[in-house]
Amino acid sequence: MSAIQVQSVSKAFRIPTVRRETVREHVLGLLEPRRFERLQVLKDVSFEVQPGEALGIMGRNGGGKSTLLKILCGVYPPDSGTVTRRAAITPILELGVGWNPELDAIDNVCLIGSVMGLTLADIRRRMDSILAFAELERFANLKLKHYSSGMASRLGYAVAFEAVREVLVLDEIFAVGDAGFKEKCEERYRELRKAGHTIVLVSHDPRAVTEFCSRALLLDKGVIAMDGPASAVTDRYLSLLTHGNAGAA
Amino acid sequence: MMNASVETRRVLPAAPVADAPGGREAAGARAGLIWTLVRTDFKVRYHGTIGGFVWALLKPLTMFALLMGVFSFLFASDPNYKLNLIIGLFLWDFFAEGTKAGLTSLHARGFLLTKARCPAWILIVTSISNAVITLAVFTVVVVGFLAWAGHPPSIGAMLLFFAYTAALLLIVVGFSLGSSVLFLRYRDLNQVWDLMVQAGFFLAPIIYPLGILPERFHIYLYLWPPTSVIEFARAVLVTGAVPTLTAHLYLAGAVVLSLAVGMLIYRRYGPRAAEYL
Predict the structure, then answer these.
(1) Could you report the per-residue pLDDT of A12-61, keeping only the tens digit for each?
(2) What is the value of pTM for the model shown?
(3) B84 in Cβ contact with B209 (< 8 Å)
(4) Strand pairing partners for B265?
(5) Which of A20, A119, A133 should be substituted to probe chain B, the one whose Cβ sees the most B Cβ atoms within 10 Å?
(6) Range A4-243 has CATH code 3.40.50.720
(7) Do A120 and B32 touch (CB under 8 A)?
(8) B118 touches chain A (CB under 8 A)
(9) Please, which residues have CB within 8 angstroms of residue B119's CB and are 6 or more apart in sequence?
(10) How far is CA B271 from CA A5, A94, B31, B125, B276, in A?
């Protein structure tokens, strides 16, 4: 039985010709009806992720990767189709997780850890380990608004790597931190793989996908252009970047 | 190279696929999330100090002192004016603070909606926690003030008072569920609500006794939900009178209507809340 099953998922966004974000703008615009353009981001996407599998997702910018990840994680609902999650998903989206800048690292770890499904006892037990992984022990009581973006991202990865239950969904996993931190992330990733965790990894980096994934999807213009061994999919992806045509799956 | 702390970290074994999210551990995590949201909200708002919380209490207390100084002369014939004023002000403060916090709750905690799968209703409901904590402290202040003024409330009166504050809390929750998702689409809704709260303060009989208005207008004032809660609370705490069954049914109807409308709007727009952040 698959860990995640995606069946005929489609997603579109309605893009208005004029943005109206306030009551005032809507009232004043009553006599000027606006048009909407339909931006089809995902079209009839279907695939399965098996337990313990590491699946890479590649594609050009605007190809629907981030939207697909958000649908997988339950952040966005699909317009049609279904996503069946048979295991707990821990997401790391958009270079880390969100933070409250007015709280220190410890409180933010409690907040994000509990959102990711850890109990408070679990979080307290792992706090030292999380701060050590992020190399932020000295700044544990500093408010996040004083952190650099790199420090905040490191903390995000450290929490998620500790919180992961079954499926880890990663958006550009290795795009954060210096060389030493990237190496730690990669090592942690291998540990998780060895422990049998399922991984879904979005990346533009062919090396990351071929090295860390057994299978990959190529997403282009909202459809799966290819589903196969990671090395073959990265070759097709590079060809797509060079020639601009993904071809058939 | 990896350091020692990384090498010795315990790697969680992957749970079997059949062990889908849910059960006691998920409930424990959710309880932890609620507690953490309440605690951190309090910390951010009051900078984690008792002194910071005292500032929140000072606002309505100062208002009470000022209004009492001015209007107790105007309503000198009403022996219960001070007691009615303090009850009205504190209940109003809860309503105003709770609805304002609820309205902006999803926007303020948007980072938890867009980066992780967090139930939006938890973010909305816990955003009201600060107003609830303040109301709890105010209740002690009000009871102390009533006792000092020679009107110690009976246990029955206190139970009814708690029922009315619970009704007001549910009205605030209903409003927050609906308005928080609408605020993501209409970003000036908080300013519209600020205006309504300002007008509503004078619409509810807080600084004036309801009795100074002709009775035919009372029904219109009761359409504003805080009016009934304030008037009922005053009746049981100050005069010891219990409102009629019809009055209670009216309040229950207001609660049900607020929750039903709020939940309908939330169910309609809540699932796509992250797309508007």
Answers:
(1) 998 888 888 888 888 888 878 788 888 999 999 999 999 999 999 999 88
(2) 0.85
(3) yes
(4) none
(5) A119
(6) no
(7) yes
(8) yes
(9) none
(10) 20, 20, 22, 16, 11
